[in-house]
Amino acid sequence: MMPALEENVSLRPYNTFGLDVRARYFARFASADELRQLLQLPAVRAADKLILGGGSNLLFTQDFAGVVLKNEIRGLHIVSEDGDSATALVRAGAGESWHGLVEYALDQGLSGIENLSLIPGTVGAAPLQNIGAYGAELRDTFDHLEAVAIATGESRVFTAGECGFGYRESVFKNVLKDQFVVTAVVLRLHRPVRPAGYAPNVRYGALAETLAELGIAGEPTPQDVSRAVVHIRRAKLPDPAEVGNAGSFFKNPELSQAKFDHLKSQYPDLPGYPVPGGVKVPAAWLIERAGWKGLRRGPGAGTHGVHDRQALVLVHHGGATGGELRQLAEEIISSVRQQFAVELHPEVNIL
Ligand code: FAD
Ligand code: EPU
Questions:
Q1: What sections of the chain are H helices per DSSP?
Q2: 32 pocket-lining for ligand 1 (C-beta < 6 Å)
């Protein structure tokens, strides 16, 4: 059946900042074929297109004058198992919730994505910025994805190598931006078997500490790691159901060793993590030091500002516009540039 094309639709329920903007046209698709049918409609062909997942990495600063195509492709299953390597290929429809996939994997006794528990949004958006948290990234378990070309409707498979994954980066954010719709993602997960068993990834400091705090001693299971990640995330990050936000608003900047050493001599408590070619520093630390943490702006108790437990997260308390949030982001960028001579770049997609 041909999916309906609605007009003048509020996007408020579809973005985790909770901004009240409208889309000129709006349609949902539940399969690659439905998507192709939509892409052939003259009104859709002529318009700017926004592929929408859970809207958890978007800042709308104005109404969207084109067509919003909301991905609702479902389906989770194990495609194949390899007993020798103790791995399983799991295929997920791009409209499935990411955390739903994590829970499915845990229920199936599979490990590999438990560190990425509770990241909001859909499976299909996960490759766009190679989602990452608590010492893991999508690319660690990624096998391939299936996509549809927006211009021609043709299907195409992308292997990990073809996706160009980096820190919050992929080809779909740069050279192939707005050219493909991800329709399914296939991950290679592990089925821990004796004697090798499960090797938890607890490199991220806070994770080992939280496991100890939760009384999980000895060998944690994938479920234990997931519980610890969920525990940390609930303590630090605002729940979009309660206060509008899109997670980290900026990427953590990567500095040259010389630049880092120079800053460290001025600010001895500046944290830094070695990465190839330099040192990554927490943008949250720079923003907090520049005095922004916990800021509230706007009438009454404030309509928007900077989260009081995580300075990297911009928040919308209600009543602000996307333009006001963008203005705040610009002021933060300029104050961090002035104080530290470090350039911050948004992680959130600003429209
Ligand atoms: P959307 O916001 O709907 O879309 C994001 C971008 O991807 C848009 O440009 C959109 O056009 C494009 N897109 C979406 N789906 C498709 C598709 N099927 N095909 C092609 N393009 C598509 N991110 C992390 O990496 N790590 C974290 O720890 C993390 N924590 C967060 C915590 C909170 C509280 C919040 C609100 C966000 C957090 N994020 C985090 C950001 C966000 O969850 C991820 O970027 C997520 O992958 C976005 O998914 P989405 O479906 O909501 O994408
Ligand atoms: N810090 C501060 N002030 C704060 C918060 C943090 O100074 O208000 C400093 C502390 O030194 C802390 C360090 O920043 O040790 C790191 O903080 P945290 O562990 O909270 O992680 P982050 O670097 O701020 C990144 C990701 C998150 C991801 C977490 C956990 C980016 C842009 N953000 O945040 O991803 O969940 O690590 O791995 O890389 C997202 O992308 O939306 C997101 C939430």
A1: 32-40, 42-46, 98-107, 160-163, 205-213, 222-236, 257-266, 283-289, 322-340
A2: no
| Confidence tier at 150 by pLDDT (50, 70, 90) | very high
* Whole-Å CA distances, 264 to 253, 259, 281: 15, 9, 11
Q: Using a 6 Å cutoff on CB, does residue 58 contact ligand 1?
A: yes
- The domain 6-71 is classified under which CATH number: 3.30.2350.10, 3.40.50.300, 3.30.43.10, 3.10.105.10? 3.30.43.10
Residue 2's pLDDT is 78
Q: Provide the 8-state DSSP code for 151.
A: T
What stretch(es) of the chain map to CATH 3.90.78.10? 244-350
Ligand 1 centre to CA of 42 (Å) is 28
Residue 319's region, left for phi above 0, alpha for psi from -120 to 50, else beta, is left
pTM of the model: 0.96
Protein residue with least CA distance to atom 7, ligand 1: 125
Determine whether 347 is an active site residue.
yes
pLDDT in tens, 249-290: 999 999 999 999 999 999 999 999 999 999 999 999 999 999
Query: Quick check: 146 and 183 in contact, CB under 8 A?
Result: yes
Q: What is the CATH number of domain 76-235?
A: 3.30.465.10
Q: Structurally, what CATH architecture does the domain formed by 244-350 represent?
A: Alpha-Beta Complex (3.90)
Residue 331 DSSP one-character state: H
DSSP structure class, residue 239: P
pLDDT band at 192 (very low <50, low <70, confident <90, very high): confident
Q: Whose CA is nearest to atom 24 of ligand 2?
A: 284
Active site (annotated) includes residue 248:
yes
Q: Within its chain, how far is the Cα of 250 from the centroid? A: 12
Ligand nearest to the CA of 73: 1
